[in-house]
């Protein structure tokens, strides 16, 4: 299950999480975002309880994408203990995302 994060709840949900977090920055109009969305959702189901998977719509939230210098989407940010550990810009495959997630555990 994925959680929606916004400018309002990002810090409390992502930075204060006790488990590693993957944040998918996306927009409804973005083709590559739609391409990786099923992969992100699948990983959220497979790794539930071990990884928190969040989605941040860059058209709804502006402060958080600016803070993390999100210049193109999709961008995946990986957090552990409130710290940004990895970043993937652009569409990628499940294996690449999974390797980054595994490195957080």
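-> sequence recovered:
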């Amino acid at each position: 299950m994925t959680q929606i994060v916004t400018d309002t709840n990002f810090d409390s949900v992502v930075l204060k999480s006790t488990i590693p977090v993957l944040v998918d920055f996306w927009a409804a109009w973005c083709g590559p975002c739609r391409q990786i969305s099923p992969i992100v959702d699948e990983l959220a189901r497979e790794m539930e309880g071990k990884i928190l998977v969040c989605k941040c719509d860059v058209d709804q939230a502006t402060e958080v994408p600016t803070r993390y210098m999100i210049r193109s989407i999709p961008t995946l940010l990986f957090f552990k203990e409130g710290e940004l550990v990895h970043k993937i810009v652009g569409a990628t495959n499940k294996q690449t995302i999974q390797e980054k997630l595994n490195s957080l555990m």
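The first strand starts at residue 2 and ends at 4.
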